[in-house]
Structure formats: structure tokens, C-alpha cells
Design a protein that fits this description.
Shape: globular
Strand content: 15-25%
Order of helices and strands: EEHEEHH
Largest sheet: 4 strands, antiparallel
Number of strands: 4
Distance between the termini: 23 Å
Structural class: alpha+beta
Helix content: 25-40%
Oligomer: single chain
Number of helices: 3
């Protein structure tokens, strides 16, 4: 079998950033998949499921309610390796196009200190696996170390 594109990225050189992972055509529409890499693969500890689950609930809620991107949001969810998230948006987009959206979204999550949307037995299949304080910490770290001063090196996959 042929290796899929995401397995051809050299994860030894990959740093936290915002990368275009792929672009797919669905009819006449382009869907852009973004790699929101929050930790350096194989160099830093991965995120635990509880904080990733919390970030997922908050980010999905934020994105689906966003005035501009709400209707363009296809999916937001965790990477299996637990080093970041995938965001799928309708449109032929580049990483730089969504930095303001991501900065606002992660600021929302950093400052969120209420009941996590959907964190109940009725609404979620694993509602007890949440960690809001750690989610707040991780997104604060991503904002300060990556998003606020992001450069071209962290917007395009390494060669």
C-alpha cells in the first residue's frame, strides 16, 4: 500500500505550528485540512486525552457558532498521536488565512472557566474525561509560543 501524505511528513523536524495538511475537492468545493500542531512530535510529552477532549468540545462549539467560519467548519478533532488537532474548513485556504480565527478561538478556550459545553452523560460518550485547567494551560502555551508571533517556518511543513 502507498503511504498516505500525513505519514510522509518528517515528524523529527516538525515543530508546533499551523500547516495545510491537504486539500480535497468535493464536487466544485475545496476542503482544506489544517494540522494544528501543538507539541513537537517525539520531543515533548503528548497531550492527555482529558485536556484534548476538553479542547475539542470548546473549539467545536466556538467554530460552529462563529459568524464567518460556522458554516465553513467541516470538522475539528484530535490527532491520534495526541500532538495536535485537525481542522477541516470549506474553502481553498492557506495557513495564514486562519491565524486570526485560531488566535480568537484559543483565546476563548484559554479564558473559559465555566461548564464545558456537552460535558454531560446525555451529550457525550465519555463526559467524565475532561480537564479544563490543563486545557486552559495548553492553549495559553500554544498562543504564547506559536500563534502570537508565527512565522513562515511554522506555516509550511518542513521539507
Amino acid at each position: 500500500m502507498e503511504k498516505i501524505t500525513s505519514f510522509t511528513i518528517n515528524h523529527l523536524d516538525l515543530e508546533p505550528g499551523v500547516y495545510v495538511s491537504r486539500k480535497d475537492k468535493v464536487g466544485d468545493q475545496t476542503i482544506t485540512t489544517f494540522d494544528l500542531r501543538m507539541t513537537a512530535p517525539n520531543k515533548e510529552p503528548v497531550m492527555n486525552t482529558a485536556e484534548m477532549h476538553t479542547i475539542e468540545h470548546l473549539a467545536a462549539t466556538y467554530l460552529r457558532n462563529h459568524e464567518t467560519f460556522g458554516e465553513k467548519t467541516i470538522y475539528f478533532g484530535p490527532m491520534g498521536c495526541r500532538t495536535g488537532f485537525y481542522l477541516l474548513l470549506a474553502g481553498d485556504l492557506e495557513s495564514k488565512d486562519i491565524i486570526p480565527l485560531l488566535t480568537d478561538m484559543f483565546t476563548f478556550i484559554r479564558d473559559f472557566h465555566d461548564e464545558v459545553p456537552g460535558a454531560s452523560a446525555r451529550d457525550c460518550g465519555n463526559y467524565l474525561d475532561m480537564n479544563l485547567p490543563m486545557a486552559n494551560y495548553l492553549v495559553k502555551r500554544y498562543l504564547e509560543n506559536t500563534l502570537y508571533d508565527i512565522d513562515e517556518k511554522h506555516l509550511v511543513y518542513p521539507e
